[in-house]
């Protein structure tokens, strides 16, 4: 267990835009008593071997890249800390590695750390349940430096639709990633997934439900990465000292 009066010791994987923003934000957070809420004990950049000797933290925060997973796993196993991961684009095999890691450490993995996105997921589930027979399309937009598509958040929204339809006994729904050529009549059980890339867009996600003569669209717009940083740091405080296991963002923040 961590000392409630001492700063939470965090390590950060990555020195890019997210890693730098996590650090600058963490270093500025103060408790009600005016003391530092976090102590950044390590930040690991391109030299992943630095993780082998980095000081122990209570929580490792990782918003970097899929290639860092071995270094992330080795660090967590070595120091026995919790992991808060916002890295997206993992393969099935890499997700299996995260789940294996959760056997020895508390692991939180989420494609989005925004409270607004959490609300959008709930609203998407409700709409999918109530709007039987409506066609569903998901569109996500991000900056031109994002390397994976669709976004992790779009996949979370897809899961919300698929799970809701299954719970209502309407059969299996499946994603279709973009359309080109003579694709034929739309399958009523497909969910269109579309990714737009350009400029400096922090993130826009829209779930649209198309029925006969009416349309319902739910949209979340992120104007900066700060919302994800704030959510990750809040989650880090709740993950420290937990029992090993795989956790979800909603479970940690609202459970």
Outline:
The chain has 255 residues and is an alpha/beta fold.
Helix content: 25-40%
Instruction: From the alpha carbons, calculate the radius of gyration and give it in angstroms.
Output: 20 Å
Total helical elements = 7
Query: Tell me about the biggest sheet?
Result: 6 strands, parallel
CATH architecture of the largest domain: 3-Layer(aba) Sandwich
| CATH homology superfamily of the largest domain | NAD(P)-binding Rossmann-like Domain
Please identify the structural class as seen in this structure. Answer: alpha/beta
- Strand order, largest beta sheet: 2-1-3-4-5-11
Report the count of strand segments.
11
CATH class of the largest domain: Alpha Beta
Listing every helix as H and every strand as E from the N terminus to the C terminus, the arrangement reads EHEEHEHEHEHEEEEHEH
Q: What is the first-to-last residue Cα distance?
A: 20 Å
Q: Give the amount of beta strand, in percent.
A: 25-35%
- The 3D shape can be described as elongated
What would the average pLDDT be, to the nearest integer? 95
Residue windows where pLDDT falls under 50 for at least 5 positions = none
CATH topology type of the largest domain: Rossmann fold
Tally of domains: 2
Characterize the structure shown.
This protein has 255 residues and is of the alpha/beta class. It is built from seven helices and eleven strands. The strands form two sheets. The protein has a six-stranded parallel sheet, with helices on both faces. A five-stranded mixed sheet has the order 7-8-6-9-10, with helices on one face. Strand 3 (59-62), helix 2 (69-79) and strand 4 form a beta-alpha-beta unit. The mean pLDDT is 95.
